[in-house]
Design the sequence.
């Protein structure tokens, strides 16, 4: 990052009055009341995307990629799910986005290539024994003063209670959080801010939930008939005429190289 960009990032964070934090202050969850907000609102508030060179790790269906590309100069969006990657590479209306295969533990990019690195609910999908390597890689490809934005679901809430019946992520989410703290304690990254919020999630019916949470190509959820019945039963307790409405507790960790 040039000196001009470094000053730019500093000015933005001063404008938002971001409080520098220590690793000992990091929290995996927030028991206090948190605001209801969309991820894009949080993203827009916290990050200076205008003109930035962005790396997204684990872009999934490229929903956030599309939003980020509206302001970023360029986006390299990596995905390890080859089925989803093929679909993403068929997208032709995002000229400043490049979709490639790659994971956080082995980023196909040169040193100091990016102003911002993004991870939307993807850190806990990195193999646990590769999480330290992933943070070293992220630090390597970030420009000095560059920012990493990590959003992770908090292990709580009604939706989590349903999903954990077939995909219990408690251990991997805790491991991801510990890897973050280690990256800060080691001096590889500096903690700037944590932001907690409740993300609204709506499903029209159980079939839509199954498509988005069970029958996903990046996982191999083979539910027994008994588990599927239990999942359906718990889900349908939340059904209304307008669909099933949830709020997902989320945590955003903002770090700096």
Sequence:
């Amino acid at each position: 990052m040039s000196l001009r960009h470094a000053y730019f990032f500093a000015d933005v964070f001063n404008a938002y009055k971001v409080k520098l934090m220590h690793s000992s202050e990091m929290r995996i969850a927030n028991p206090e009341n948190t605001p209801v907000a969309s991820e894009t609102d949080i993203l827009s508030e916290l990050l200076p995307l205008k003109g930035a060179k962005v790396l997204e790790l684990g872009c999934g269906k490229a929903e956030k990629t599309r939003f980020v590309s509206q302001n970023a100069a360029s986006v390299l969006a990596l995905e390890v799910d080859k089925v989803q990657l093929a679909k993403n590479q068929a997208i032709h209306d995002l000229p400043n986005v490049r979709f490639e295969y790659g994971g956080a533990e082995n980023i196909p990019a040169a040193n100091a290539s990016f102003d911002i690195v993004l991870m939307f609910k993807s850190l806990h999908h990195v193999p646990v024994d590769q999480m330290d390597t992933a943070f070293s890689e992220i630090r390597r490809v970030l420009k000095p003063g560059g920012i990493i934005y990590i959003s992770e679901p908090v292990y709580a809430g009604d939706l989590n209670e349903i999903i954990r019946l077939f995909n219990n992520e408690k251990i991997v989410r805790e491991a991801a959080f510990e890897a973050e703290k280690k990256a800060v304690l080691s001096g590889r990254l500096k903690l700037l801010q944590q932001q907690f919020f409740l993300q609204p999630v709506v499903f029209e019916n159980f079939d839509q939930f199954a498509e988005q949470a069970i029958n996903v190509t990046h996982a191999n959820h083979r539910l027994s008939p008994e588990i599927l019945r239990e999942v359906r039963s718990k889900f349908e307790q939340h059904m209304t005429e307008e669909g099933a409405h949830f709020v997902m507790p989320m945590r955003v960790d903002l770090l700096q190289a």
Notes: The first strand starts at residue 53 and ends at 57.
